[in-house]
Structure formats: C-alpha cells, structure tokens
Amino acid sequence: MKKALLSAACLGSVTVFAQVKDSTRTNDVEEVIMTASRKKENIKEIPSSVTVVAEKQIQSQLTVNSDITSILQYTVPSLGTNSGQTSNTGQTLRGRQVLVLIDGIPQSTPLRNGARDLRSIDPSVIERIEVIKGASSIYGNGADGGIINYITRRSKSDKKISGLSQIGFTGQPYEGGGTLGVRASQLLSGKINKFDYVFSLAYERTGYMKDADGIYLTPTYSTAKMNNYNGMLKLGYNINADQRIEASYIGYASKSDLNLGLKTGKYGISPTIGDGVGKSLETTPQGTPKNHNFRINYDNQNMFWGSTSLNFNAYMQDFKTVYGYSDTFFGGGQSNVISKKYGARINFDTKLWNAQNSQAEIMYGMDILNDQTVQKLEDGRYWTPDMSMTNLAPFLLIKVDLLKKLTLKGGLRYENMKVKVGDFNTLSTLKSDGTFTQSIFVTGGNLKYNALVANLGVRYNIEPFLNLFGSFSQSYSINELGRILRTSTQGTIQNLETKPIIVNNYEFGATGQISKWINYEITSYVSTSKLGASFVQSPDRALTIQRSPEIVYGVEGFLHITPAKWINFGGSYSWMEGITSLKDDGDYSAKINNSRISAPKVLAYIQAKPIPALSLGIDMLHAFQQDRFQPNTKTGLFAYGEGYVPEYTVFNFKSSYEINKNWKVSLGVENIFNINYQPAIAWWSARDSEFVNAPGTRGTLMLEYKF
How far apart are the C-alpha atoms of 389 and 177, rounded to whole Å? Predict the structure, then answer.
C-alpha cells in the first residue's frame, strides 16, 4: 500500500518487533519500509515512535490466540491489556482513544465509540500492522492516542496461482468438554500479465470459554460459541510502469449463539460466571453481524515531467455491532451501533529538489469523509440521535533530508467538521435507586467545528548506535458525541457541552543498533488537552462524560538481542500517568482514572531455532499493580475506573515445525501455567457484574500447506 498515513503528526522511529523476533538478523530492522507519510519511507527518516508488527509475528501470535486484541497486547508496549471479551474498552493507546483502520479505511465509530473496532478483521488476512503512537490528524476524527492500521495481504509472487491453506483446532484440555473450537483459512494469490489478485476466506468457530478452575466465563461480551467469518478480494492492474489501479472488498462478521445464564459475583471476592441457561431474550445474536469495506485506489508516480506523484483513494464502510440483552432499558432490550462511512483522499507528492547532500519534497491534498452513526435498540428505539458528520481537510507536509543524517518534517492540516444531529427522545434507563429516568424530547440541529492543527519533527542519525528524534503533533476529534447527547437533560443540543478534543503531543526519544546484535529504543512523551473526555461515575453510579483539562505523560522502550543466528530475546517496558484539573483552575491534583491510564506493562520473549526446521518461543506479559485511588469512605466502594488492580503474569508458548517446503505444523499454548487471574478491567471497573476471570490454559494446533 503506497499511499497511506499522512500526518498532521510527524511520525517516527519504528519498533519492529516482528522483524527482530522472527528473523535471525537484527540488521533486518534497517530494511523495513513503512507508509507513515503517504509514501513509503525508511525508518531512519521518521522522527517519532511507531510500532510495526510484521506478518511473521502475526502468524506466530495467531497460533496462540486468534483474537486480534490479544495479538496487539503482546506486541504494542503502550497499548492497554485486553479484556478477553468482544469489547476493547480500556485498551487505550498512551491513555487516549485510538483510531482503527483497515487499509486506511476508518473502522472506529468515534461519534459513538462502541469499543468493537479492534475486532473488525481476522488476523489471517493481515500482512502487517502499523501503530502510530501519539495524537494524530492523519485521518481526522478519533485519533487522540494514535492510529492502528491493519494492512492486508498483497500478491507477492509472479506465479499465476499460489496459496496458503490452514486448518486448526483450539481447546482447553484442563477445563473439561465443550471448549473445542475449529478455524480454517484459505488464501489464493497470483499474477496474470498486468493483473494481480488476492482472494481469502477464513472461518472460526469457538467453543465454551472457561477459567483455570474449569468454570464457565461470564456470557456478557463473551467470545464463546461464536462464529467468525472473514472474506477478502483484492484486484490490481498495472497500467504501465508508473500507473496502477486497485480495488478491494473486505467483509467480516461475528455472531454468537451462546445461551448461558449469568451468576453475578462479588467484586474482589468471587467472579461473575456463566451458570445455567440464558433467558433467550436476544432478538439478534451478539457480535458484529456485518463490517463491509470497499476501496478503490489509483497511483500515478510520474506526473508533471516526473516531479510529482498522485494517489487517489475512495472507500465505503458499512458496520453494525450488537450487544447483549439488558434490563437497564425501560422494558428491556438490546442496543447496537450502526455506522456508514464514505470517503476520498487525494494526495500529491512533489519533489522540490534532489541534490547530492540534500533532498526536499512537499505533500499536499484533501481528505473528505462522511460518517453516519447512530445507536439504537434492536426494537427500533433511539439511544442516540442520527448523527452525520462531514469532514473536509486540506493538508500540507514538507520534508527535508540533509547530509543523509538529518530529517526535518513540518505540516499543517485544516479540520472543518460539520455534524447534523436529528431530533430524538432520550431513552428511559434504570437508575441506582430502581427507578427509571424521564424521557425528554431533544431538538437536533447543526454543530460546526474547525481548527488548524500542525506538526513538526526532527530526526538526527548521529551514528548507527545513536539516532535522536523529537516531534510535536496534534489531533482534533469530537469523540463520544453520541454518549453526551444520549444523556441530555436539555431540550436542545445547543445547550450541551460538545466542544471537540484537541490534543497536543510532545515526544522525544533515542534509538539505535549496537554492533550487529543489539537494537534498542527509549521514548518519552507528554500529551495535553484543554478539554478532555473521561468516563466518570455520577452519584447515582451512572456513567457520565467528564470534560476537563488533561495531561498524560509516560515512557516506553524496548531492547532486542540476537547473540547467535539461532536465538534471539528481548522485551519492552511502558509506564504512563494522567492528571486532570477538574475545576479548570490549574490544580492538577486529580488523576485520570484507570479506564484510560493502564498499569505499567513488561513484555518479554525468547525465540530459538535449535534446528532449521524447528522454532520454539515463549512470550511473557507482566502487568504491574495499580493503586491510584481510595474507595468511598462511607460505602467502602470504589468508583468506576478507580478500582485497585493487582499485578499478574502470563506466559504463552509457541512452536512450529517445517515438515518440508510445503507443510508446517504449529502448536501454541496460552497461559501455559493455567494461572487463575482477572484481566485489569475486572478490577478497575469496580463492578460486581464485571468482576470476571480470564481464560485458563488454551491450546491451538494448526496445520499449514503452502503452494
């Protein structure tokens, strides 16, 4: 994908776990080319922190757990740990919301964040994952903490047909029957004259999910008894040496037929579990019944006497996700989030000069996006109004390279957003005292937002062992407008606080390679916003949006060591803190709660090839304890997002054996020591119904045929 990630944030140094972990040569890192500025670049030209998860590591992690949220928690240092459920609530990036893309197509629903955007594609079809860390306006709304871009597979062979067939089985051998699952995928690709194609189908059926004691996990947001489907068709045509056109369709769906009852536990004492038979009140299976993505892309690398290239990209996304039955609505019901997006991007890249010791180029164009989002109940009642956002954003980015050591980048982007909000009646919902809120009629209208956001970055490659980078970048978003509107107590939207979030991100770091076998990076960052947005608990224990000035700061780093061709090991560390001024009076003694500020995290790995055909590896995730708040002095209860989080450590095992050049068998084991623990969200949410256990030991056996 040649186009892709322009920033209003200058982007930076790359953490390439896969290139180090799945290769026997650390100098492979230097060869990585990425698309951080709407064109492919060497990582030595990028002045801030980016993580790239390459194909080999995705496939290796897939052997352990096919859930993309699990793959990400083991590969992205500053990303929060996952919940083990269909929701990615709390899995923030550097303490802020992340914008998820597939080949540059927005998957997130920032107008009403449904927290199911990470699980929007099967990992078998992903070639690489680019994680842009820090505030960014690359694709407009929703990237306060950064961007996660799933880049799908492309045809790499000159053969008319080549393929990869996989079939696997999953299960929990220590936890009894019913946990057996199956997954299968088929990838075909090839090239015929000037045409090339990729075709993929994937299917997975999961079994029951149980904890280390063999007890059914909670049915709420459960990934158990779920059918997952994924299909992709990508067609390309090389018009000539300079021009190419490509069209693609990617479809994903997940539907659960789990029918377990719910036995609510006690926070900090006993977990909420699945027990008995469910109420069978659902009108629609839980999950994401549809996520359709269409895209057409045109490249011309030789315009205006070879000094300018053009990329044009148009796309459409049609998304729906459905949640479980809840009695919190008057009369009960299931909620959903429905979103449609239509967009186009036009990008020009013009060379300003190309001398021996200096080069310069300017990138400019326009992004256009229409996002139509609503949250309803399955019976048709509105929970949010219809929201239609149109975003027109011209941009400009200048890049200068000097002496093959110094890179300077600077850019501007003008965000012009208009949101049309429909009239609606607020939904009557349950309060803590057992009564229901009063439904009121809210008159809709038009909301307008605009701002000029900027970026500036510099990278100085002093020596191979020491490269310094620093950057300033901004994001602009109207995240969670729907949640603000759905709890309206005013009769018109003009009386509500709906101002956007502008985040300023400052970053400084160092990276390098010592000899041929040590690769490292350390990064520090600070992000500020005059008006942030966090979930807090009101006196009646309902969730509301807190709008106040914020500061988030942290450090992260990694170290990779390859002492011999047959072995490599290393790890990463991330830490962050967030503070806020509740009264906007300069007093930042209050802390942003744990729903956004995740505990420090250590990732570690060792991978070895004792013989060329055999690969063995162990991954470790250690989440530290988080003790940042005190319970209510009268009730002894923690507020939402403020619960004490104990530390936990999980080990995973992965292995593969190449039978011959065509056949390979793989075995992965998640939670190999069958530790009984709770994910972080179970503790910080501080709710009885959300205090749940994580899965016990779970194995995956996979057979692969490549031709």
Answer: 48
